[in-house]
Each structure stands twice: as C-alpha cells, then as structure tokens.
C-alpha cells in the first residue's frame, strides 16, 4: 500500500482514516452519554476533534470527518428492513457528514482568515475568533445539516426540530469548547512540562478538588471545592503550560459530565433539560473564561517575551554600540594625539576659527608667530587689538580682507595670500603666506575655518634687499637710473595733475676719468661716494639724487618751476664742488658740468627730459666745464649732431674711415720746405667728410681720441719713415696732439713705442699741443713735454695767442716752436691790433729762442707783413692746402736729394 502511494499521500490517508476512526469512536462515546428525552449528548467530542484536526492538519483531512460522521449516523440509524429505511439512514449519514465537514472546514477557514494562525488561543482576539467561528458558527452548520437530515429522513419528527437543533448545537459547541483548545495546545516540546512535580501536584489537587466539588453538591466543602476550581485553573494558567491548563478544563468538564450522568452533584434537578443546560453553561463558562484568560496570559507572555527579546536585542545593540564607540573613541584619541603632534611640529602656524571667527585651536608655531600662548589666543576673534595685519604696502588690512573673513564671505579656499603681522612686542613686521579652507559638516553647514600661515619674513627681506639692489647704486647707495626714472615718472604725473612743475639736473663730473687713471679706482670710488653724499645733502628731503652711470648724477627737484628757482637750487649743487674732496689724505678739487631742464616747458616725457638735461650738460661742458647750462631748443640741433657723430665715431678706425693729409710749412726767408703738418680727415660712408673741428672735441669727450691720436701719430711716423726711405726731404711732420692724450701719465712712453713701432727717427716728428691745454695743466704739461723732448721730438705750441700765456709760463715750458693762431693772421693787414699781437709774439718767441710759425696765411700781404716781422715759418693756403701723401710728394722733391727711390711713397 505504501509502495503504491507516495509518502505524503499515504500519511494523509492514514490521518484521514485515523480521524474517521477517532470521530467514530468518540461519537459512539457521545451516543453512550446521550440522555433522554432527546438522547442528545451534553458534549459532542468529535466536533472539537474535527475542528482541531482541520486547523492542525489542513483542509485535506475533511474526508476523515465525512467518513466518521457518515459512519456514525449510518450505524445509529441503519435499518435494512426496507430499502427506504436504508436509504434514509444513508441520507441522514450524508447530511451529518456534510454538516460536520462544513462545520470544521468553514470554522477553520474563518478562524485562519481572521487570526492568521492555526493555534487560535494565544491572544484574546484569537480566543474570540475561535469561539465565534469555531464554537458558534461552525457548530451551527453541523447542527443544521445533522438535525435537518434526521428530520427529513423521518428519524426525528419535525415537531422536535427546534429542541433537537438546540441540544445538538449546544452539544457540538461544548464539544468544540472543551476539546479543540486542548488538542490545539498539545505541543510535543511542551509535553515535558507534564512530568514536572508541579504538574503532578496540580493534577492531584485539581482532581480531588473537582471530584469533591462536583460530586458532593450538598456538602458545604463541595461548594468550597467547586469555587476553588477557578483559582486552581488560574494558577495553572500562570504557572503551567496551556496544554495542562486546557487538560484541566477537559478534566473538570469530564468530571462535571460524569457527575451529571451518574446523577450526583450540582447538575441534578427536577428538570432534565435545565440540568443539561446548567451543565453545559458551567462547562462553557469554565472553558471560555479559561480560554480567554489563557489567551490573555499567553498574549501577555508573548508581549513579555517580545519585550525581553527587544530588550535583549537593545542591550546587545547598546553593548555593541558602546564597544564600537569606545573603540572609535580610543582611535579618535590616538588620531587626535597624532594630529596634535603633527600640527605642533609643522613649520606653518595653524589657527582654527569658529564661524564667528573666535579661535578654537592653535599650534605651537602659531603661538611663536603670533606671540601669544594657545590659552591666550583661545576665544579671541580674528580682529584683535593685540595684532594688526598689513598688506604689501604696509597698509592696515580692513577686517573684511582678513583671510578668515574672505573664506567666510566666499566659502572658498584661500591660497597664498601675503600679509604682514605687526605685533606690539616686535619692532619688525612678520611676513606670512596664508592659506585656508572652510570645513563643513555633513549637511553643508560651515563649522570651522582652518588657516595656516607660513613665515616668509626672510624671503620678504631678501626680496626687499633685492629690490633695493635693483633700484639703488651699490657704490653710493643712491637710487639708480631705474628708480630715478620711476620717481621722475611719478613726479611728472603728480605735476600734471596739479599743474605743477619740476626741474631735472644732469650732473657730470669733469674729467673724472683722470682721477681713476691717476689715483686708481678705489680713489675714484671714494670720490664718487663723497660727491653722492654732498649732493644728497644739498637738496631737500622730497628731491631725489640718483647715480645713473660712472660719473653721472641726476637730481630731481620737486616743485621747482621758474628758471630762477632752479638756478638757486643748481647754485647750491655747484657749491658742493667748491670745497676739495679729501680722498686718501689728499684734497681733490673736482668740478662738474650741469644741464638743467624744466617740466613742462622743456619736455613732458621722462626720456625727453633726460635727453634734454643731457644736451644742456654737454653744452655746459663745451662752454668750458665747471658750470651749468639751461636747456634751450637751439641746443637740440647741436646735441643731435653731437649724438650722430658720437655714434658714427664708434668703429670708424676699424672701418678705416680715417686718413691723413699733409699741409706744407715753409721757411719764410728762403721759401724752403721746413716741414708738413699732418691733419686728420674722416670720410663717413653716409655722413661724408666730417671736419676734425667737429669730431675731435666729441672724440675727446668720449675718450676715443686716445685711440685715434695714437693712430695719427703712428701713421705720420710711418709716413716719415716711408718718405725718408724714398729719399724725400720733408723736414718734420707736425702732428696734432689732443690735451687728453698728454693728460695720461704714460704719453711719453706711447710716443716712444710708436716711434719704435714705425722705425721713425724722433727728429722727423714735431708734436703740436694747444696753448689752452698747456696753460690749464702747466705742471703736468712741463713734466710730460720734457720727457717727450728727451726722446728727441720737437714741441710746438698750437693756436698760440688764444690761451693767455704769460712770459713766466713760457719760460718754464720746453718748447721749440710757437704757432701763431690763424685768427690773428686772418685780418692782416687790416687789423693793427692783430698785427701788434703778432709782432709781440714773434719778438717774445725769439727772445725765448723759439721758432715762430704763422698759420692760415692766405695772402701775399700777410706773408709780407710776417716777413717784415721776421716770422720764421709760414703755413697756409697761399703755399699749399692739406693734401694726401701722394699729392704732396712732388712738392717735397725739389728740396730733397733722393736716396733710395725717385717715387713718392705713401706710408
Ligand atoms: N688733435 C688733433 N687735432 C687735429 C688733427 N687734425 C686736425 N686737427 C685739428 O682740427 C682742427 C681743424 O683742422 P683742419 O680742418 O684740418 O684745419 C686745418 C687746416 O686745414 C687749416 N688751414 C691751414 N691753412 C689755412 C689757411 O690758409 N686758411 C684757413 N682758413 N685755414 C687753414 O687750419 C687747420 C690747422 O690748424 P692747426 O692744427 O692749428 O694748425 C684744427 O684745430 C686742427 O688742429 C689731429 O690729427 N689731431
């Protein structure tokens, strides 16, 4: 059988069969308890079994119900005497079966539907559902079908339908009340409680009490025992399991029914129906009160259990959370300590502000930089009288520009803001580079602002030092050209705004180079320092003195407008040079040439003003130095020409743009060639021929004359050697020497070198030196000229008569020849003055044993006059213009006996 059916199906059919048999057996027991007159059982146990079976096993068990109920009815009413009887029995059985199936299935369905449980005794609501759907409604159907079936088949007359229905229904209802809760409460695991001494004690006490109370109604103690049943059951409710409690109710019901059936106890009276109803009411009250109380107790216990569970869970959660928090707290403390150590070792100061800018936290470095301890800083606001923040220009920062304020306003990080901190306990400003960022919580609310600042004072100081170096002259400490230009620009803008004026003075030391050359550079530097110091002292606080190059200074006189005001200021500058400068124990008398220009009339731009002051200064130089000159428009043309020539001069020698021409000189008495004068010529590819009268002074100013002068001397010497080698008799070649050349200490050596280099005999050369130079530098000139003369080279004084020479001076000078300046010759024979001067010069020179030569002789009359005055030699266009060496060579021939070659030769 089991092989044919699956395991589950077999079990089900087994359970169905067991239920049918159980139903049949308990129904038979019920029938045996049935009492006249209705022969209805006071408690119909199968009803309780089948409801419990459906609830516990499922709806599929219904065939067991049907079979049991059908079989019971058929067995009770089976009459095979006639087919009708048999049919009636089967029909009644079927109605009974259907009624009980519907009773159990519908009751179970409604209970489950409303309580969602198959054990509907654990809460009060479940208990009520069990009573309503299982006890009242379900049994109504079984009674309806059962009684109707019996009446319809004639086993019971219709006249007794109501009474039978009532007793059937109440019997079924009591059966469900007594049996179902008990069967539902049976749990395997709870059966172990049944064997506890407490349960046994309870069973014994209950049994004795029940039997005593139910069996002995007339006895006073019986009443007491009966009344004691309820507390006993209640004790069970609280102390024992639901199955024991419900079992006790079953027991009490069984005892009551037994007492009722055997005619003892409380439910015995004259009216049998009343007795039955009383019994059923007793049982119903016992069971319902127990069921409800049990459900309340269970619900309470369940609630308690849930609460306990919840509490346990809560405890566990709290413990876990506490542990977690403790762990986190410890980790946090470690992390905080680590962070604290970290920020305290930072090279940057750190200050944490609250959103109201009060200080929450600082590190060690911040304490050092801000000069207060953490405790002193805590709670202070960003704006505090103790410290003051300044910007790059040392202007006090407004509070809204503080780093913390800027972050508060923008909610953005701040990067590399430079600011200075001025503290009352320090004289100097501490410069810092501040960075910062806002810190927000998870909701985006600003909670803190963290500012870090790095001390860059040393960088700032270096920057200031660099800035000073970049804008100041290292030697004198005065502003340099860069700073001067900037200040001049500012002054111009200021003057422009308020229609003001200013004066610019270009100061150039006269012949400073000579100090360097003769005394050495340290002496030159010392002199420059003293000049700078005196100039700076000679002007007002608001004026600026700058050194713009070697020996050039610029003075900016603020607010000086009219020329007369400027003149007063410049006179003060000139005064500076009146007192000698003590350099290395020797007083040095230094002069300066100054050029002045005034804003706005002489220029509006920096460059223009500087250039015009420079032009004016050059004019002062040309005017004989040691003086000043105001700028005028006419100066510009000269200055431009000057600048053009100056530029063109650079490299002219290398480009071989120079050449020498030679002008003959003759003995006046016999008209024999006595010599030639070498004259420099410069042909610039673009500017054309430029007169030495224009470019020599410029070359002298810029020192180029030394190179050019050496080239002239060398070329003349070589020419002398060439002519001599060619057998030409040229007498001497007179070479013009600039004062700048002689000023140098080594000029005699230079001449010697050149003579050697050109293999030129000294007697072939004559050097012409201007009278004005010799007179200015008499002592020096005497020394130099003697040394030159010692070489065997002749010396002539050029432009004689213009330099205010005195007889005593002339006597000291080692001179061979005096050259009367052509300006005296020019007006002969018209100007008696000049003629008298010429006569005097000739007489004077002859008295000193010197040869006299007159230059610029253009006319016979001039030659005649000179001849009458016994002038020795003449030079001029009358005799010959300056020409090249080749051109002059034929002129040399008549006077020379050729030695090696008959051809004129160029050097
Ligand atoms: N340091 C140097 N100075 C030099 C050199 N070469 C020339 N000079 C000087 O330049 C000035 C101008 O010289 P230059 O234009 O060459 O004029 C000379 C003659 O050409 C001119 N001269 C000669 N005879 C006459 C004449 O009859 N009438 C007239 N109007 N001019 C004439 O005179 C100049 C010569 O002058 P000086 O030297 O004083 O004899 C001039 O001062 C030159 O000195 C040089 O190489 N180095």
UniProtKB/TrEMBL annotation:
Its EC number is 3.1.4.52. Residues 335-380 form the PAS domain. GO terms for biological process: cellular response to nitric oxide; regulation of DNA-templated transcription. One of its GO terms (cellular component) is plasma membrane. The chain crosses the membrane at residues 39-55, 60-78, 90-111, 123-145, 165-184, 196-214, 220-238, 245-267. It comes from the Bacteria. One of its GO terms (molecular function) is cyclic-guanylate-specific phosphodiesterase activity. Its cofactor is Mg(2+). Residues 500-633 form the GGDEF domain. Keywords: c-di-GMP, Cell membrane, Membrane, Transmembrane, Transmembrane helix. It is an enzyme of class 3 (hydrolase). Residues 415-468 form the PAC domain. It holds the Pfam family PAS. It is found in: Cell membrane. It is a multi-pass membrane protein. NCBIfam families: GGDEF (TIGR00254), sensory_box (TIGR00229). This is cyclic-guanylate-specific phosphodiesterase.
